[in-house]
Amino acid sequence: MTELVDDPWPAPRATEAVDLTIDLPGSKSLTNRALILAALADWPGVVRRALRSRDTTLMARALTSLGAHVDTSGDDWHVSPGRFDADAAVDCGLAGTVMRFVPPVAALSTGTTTFDGDPHMRTRPIGEVLAGLRGLGVEIDDAGRGALPFAVIGRGAVPGGRVVIDASASSQFVSALLLAGARYDKGVEVVHVGKPVPSLPHIDMTVAMLRAHGVEVDDADANRWAVAPGPVQALDQVIEPDLSNAAPFLALAAVSAGSVVVRRWPEATTQAGDALREILTLMGCEVTRVPEGLRVRGTGVLHGIDVDLHDVGELTPAVAALCALADSPSHLRGVAHIRSHETDRISALATELSGLGADVIEREDGLSLRPAPLRGGVFHTYGDHRMAHAAVIIGAAVDGVLVEDIATTGKTFPDFAAFWSGLL
User: Fold this and answer.
1) Is this model's pTM higher than 0.90 or not?
2) What pLDDT is recorded for position 6?
3) Residue 342 appears among annotated catalytic residues
4) In the chain, is it the N or the C terminus that has fewer CB atoms within a 10 Å radius of its CB?
């Protein structure tokens, strides 16, 4: 059961250097991709150390409603593919992966699948995925909105083939079409036209997971990905810890001049959160691999940085919070796409950090920050778990920070508030 907490929640202050070794829940991005592929596989599979959170629970329910069976009763989730032969209703909540990854799967059903979610989800982009599905021979009923709510009218098979989309708003547009592509009659070839695709590591993650399931993927050319038709092999897959969720914990080492070890940090990974190693080093931390995983030591000082976060935009809130505490100016660039995440993260960060005294300039594709004394106050999260991460980082270094709706962290980290408080 999720623990009830005060709202706004008083963020605990780090009054001394921490010395912590922690285990993090599994990656949401890996868990939801693994569930999709397991539901499409030719035999039952297991997703071990699956993240149990709102987003992953919504994914499990969506796939079950289509006809697969996902047993989430234990730490290891057992997935049995099923017949997709009935009408279904999918609740996307605030999960972009559910809204974008499930429709291409629902297209393989013989039933009609309706999609809706939390009110804010009706403003998040999905039109390119729907247009791409239409181009592959799928019937979509969205009343011309290109947004939630919509319905996928299944015919039991998808012709597939080549489709051209603009994925400059989200790499998930590409991943969505690739994940189910092997089950389409002609496979799928996705070509991107437009500004550079953000968060390319997430597409690399999708490609790597498809190949692990025995699917043939051609990604030799820039802005083009082709999945050959064929079976999806079942796997017994172990989910890595969520490295993006590591951000506030590693930041805690930085702001307290302490040490934090994250167990099981992978030697090689496609997760965007792995970029924290380089970012924290640039900011003045000592980052080393240890037998348990990865250690970050704070040195008592944080330096500003000038960095392009285009490929790792989800780290922007945590990095911006650290930059607000740095001793020199920072410039965070290349993240215009995060304006269409759970909230407009650029605007929200500028507003909330400024409200606590930070010197922040909002730019079209990022933020500029200069050193300024910070103070306590209410930090609003806009229903965005990454905004809550930024808030607790500031709260660890500044007295009197109150976090509105800390419970939103349950999207990817159940009972985060209790876990964080226990560390401090």
Assistant:
1) yes
2) 87
3) no
4) N
